[in-house]
Design brief:
Number of strands: 0
Membrane topology: Multi-pass membrane protein
Order of helices and strands: HHHHHHHH
Number of domains: 1
GO biological process, one term: lipopolysaccharide transport
Family: Belongs to the ABC-2 integral membrane protein family.
Helix content: over 70%
Subcellular location: Cell membrane
Radius of gyration: 19 Å
Protein name: ABC-2 type transporter
Structural class: mainly alpha
Strand content: under 5%
Shape: globular
Length: about 170
């Protein structure tokens, strides 16, 4: 602990280093996905350029989420268990496993689940690479909801991080 207190490392960069560390796994999976896509005879198109937009959106959202959750986890250690459970459920209902766009899925529930930022990112990658491609700016409502949630998370995360950063060493 004495060594931690003498470090001149920005605590706000710790969530960022964790995200960057996990990117290698992401790129391996992405390479396998691109290989599978090309194996399925999906032809590259101009729409594939918006992959970079969705990658940046994913990165910013993950940083905002990790800034909030890492700060709360330091303050309330039991929060991590609840957070991982909620995140697992969030992945299940984000459209990865359950097809929320299915005509048999209840419309009201489908609209509520589409507010999930993970749905926006996953559906954006799908539309870009696999399905009927559309430009990301065509769905203004989804863009505003996603970026609104992301900006709120960034503001809240920055606020609680700045408020409690002087006391982090007491909690560690």
């Amino acid at each position: 602990m004495n060594m931690l207190s003498r470090m001149k490392f920005s605590l706000a960069a710790i969530p960022l280093t964790e995200i960057v560390t996990e990117l290698r796994r992401y790129f391996v999976m992405l390479g396998m996905a691109f290989f599978a896509i090309l194996f399925m005879n999906v032809k590259p198109s101009i729409y594939w350029l918006q992959f970079f937009y969705y990658f940046i959106a994913m990165f910013v959202f993950l940083y905002a989420l990790s800034l909030v959750t890492s700060t709360i986890t330091v303050l309330v250690p039991d929060f991590y268990n609840a957070y991982t459970a909620v995140l697992r459920v969030g992945m299940w209902i984000s459209g990865v496993i359950i097809p929320v766009d299915s005509p048999t899925f209840p419309l009201l529930l489908s609209n509520i689940l589409k507010i999930n930022p993970l749905y926006y990112i996953i559906q954006g990658f799908r539309e870009t690479l696999l399905e009927n491609p559309v430009w990301f700016w065509h769905n203004v409502t989804a863009n505003l909801v996603f970026w609104g949630i992301t900006i709120i998370l960034l503001v809240v995360g920055a606020h609680i991080h700045m408020r409690f950063r002087s006391r982090f060493m007491d909690f560690v």
